[in-house]
Amino acid sequence: MGDARDEAVRGGISLDSVDHRILRALSQDARQSVSALAATLHLSRANAYDRISRLRAAGVLQGYTAVVDPRAAGMSTAAYVFLTLKQDDWEVLRGALADEPAVRHLALVGGQYDAVLLVRTRTVEELRRVVFERIQSLACVQSSQTALIFDDHTQYEHPMPRRLP
């Protein structure tokens, strides 16, 4: 018999509306205390604590982090880089770019391309260096196409509501 994490890995645990409200509230302010969260959501502290513990154990909540505005942090240049890889080289690509700070997101995708990367840098010159010298020079990369991002909006997994239910 598996534990909650095994269940989450196989296909996700069943989340009810209270779980989703907890996730939304934590997405809005992960620093709030369990007591404050419970009060906001009209739950007992014990119920809120148990649910948060269950969400952590199942791997739904994997940690708490600061949300950084890349522009405010000086990373005002961004692009999506679409890659075609040589046969079965996804793991090679992921390993090669694991320590590249400019690569903010890397995904294996279906369709015309094999992978898509979100690259953020301070300048266009730095973006050019990362794309041409770092990414395209990898033996596993067959071809690439770069799309400069002029403006963007981040949509989180649990959109931040104007007010909690």
Automatic annotation (TrEMBL):
One of its GO terms (cellular component) is cytosol. The keyword ATP-binding does not apply. It comes from the Bacteria. The keyword DNA-binding applies. One of its GO terms (molecular function) is sequence-specific DNA binding. Residues 15-76 form the HTH asnC-type domain. Keywords: DNA-binding, Transcription, Transcription regulation. InterPro entries: AsnC-type_HTH_dom, Dimeric_a/b-barrel, Tscrpt_reg_AsnC-like, Tscrpt_reg_AsnC/Lrp_C, WH-like_DNA-bd_sf, WH_DNA-bd_sf. This is Transcriptional regulator.
